[in-house]
Inverse folding.
């Protein structure tokens, strides 16, 4: 994963730059814990963000869909794509409305996808997807047959760069708000 | 929310078109239950997908960030944007790897944002955000003061079109797989 400052900065220039990191272990840990990726691409100048399941193999993400899917075909052509995974860890309730926040861990990945076409590589990629969903599941579930393999489009998205962002801990409040008779703390997100 | 077939189709031409819907009540229900939106835009030809908190007011979504944020400034300029909200309801485990799936509800919204600048409108928009996070919270938390208001950029994203997609229920498996000695069913997603 190389670091291209211009693109990474674009993702990081937000409210709290101190929350950003390009640490690869952190990036991988977040990707491994997430289940849904939001995949962004541009189609006719219009940004499109679609939720997809995924799996990780090193610095590559495996995506899949139906062979006739226009989305899969567009991605397979190697257009620039952005894959974002967000874990919501808690709602941060403060005494002031302004200091409300969320605890989260997110990764923004930039890269391009290429189609996986050889049957063996496709099988391995689909195993990665199923193992990501439920570790150990490929030992139990029936493996795809030739018909199922040919009906499935598989993409290999190479993470060219990625940055993680993390917010954790209690609300950060100004001292003058602390005496206010309002409950403050972190609640679980519930979804 | 008007329906522009060309853009909505682009989001819906995926593996299971029968899962798609433009029903406004369903779209609103999903948006009201979600906590994190994935906001997509194009910057220098590169798609960018950023997680953001949000609130809904009718067919508009409220977004916010810091005034110096380049992301907020780009969105405020009225570029085409895509806001996607996904609720993961369960992991669908089937007897065959191919039939594994996820139960989810998602909404893909297309539109453009405009800045909210008047102080009163900003206060109302920020109330919408806080109420979305924790209903009733604006009655308890201290309201933003003038300094906090001026430090916060608020955007009003008008949903020009939106489509929902829902997958629910047990795994759909072929009859010949049913005798396989593998557990199948729906598990909670856990995150």
């Amino acid at each position: 994963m190389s670091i291209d400052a211009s693109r990474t900065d674009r993702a990081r220039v937000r409210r709290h730059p101190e929350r950003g990191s390009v640490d690869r272990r952190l990036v991988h840990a977040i990707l491994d814990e997430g289940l849904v990726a939001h995949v962004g691409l541009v189609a006719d100048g219009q940004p499109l963000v679609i939720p997809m399941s995924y799996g990780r193999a090193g610095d590559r993400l495996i995506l899949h869909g139906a062979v006739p899917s226009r989305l899969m075909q567009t991605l397979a052509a190697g257009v620039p794509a952005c894959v974002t995974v967000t874990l919501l860890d808690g709602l941060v309730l403060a005494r002031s409305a302004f200091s409300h926040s969320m605890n989260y861990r997110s990764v923004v990945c930039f890269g391009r996808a290429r189609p996986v076409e050889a049957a063996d590589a496709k099988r391995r990629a689909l195993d990665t997807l199923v193992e990501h969903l439920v570790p150990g599941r490929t030992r139990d579930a029936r493996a795809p047959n030739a018909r199922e393999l040919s009906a499935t489009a598989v993409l290999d998205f190479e993470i060219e760069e990625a940055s993680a962002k993390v917010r954790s801990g209690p609300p950060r409040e100004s001292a003058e708000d602390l005496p206010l008779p309002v409950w403050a703390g972190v609640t679980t997100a519930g979804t």
Remarks:
- Strands of chain A lie at 20-21, 36-43, 46-53, 55-57, 60-66, 80-93, 101-116, 152-167, 185-187.
- The CA atoms of residues 127 and 138 of chain A lie 6 Å apart.
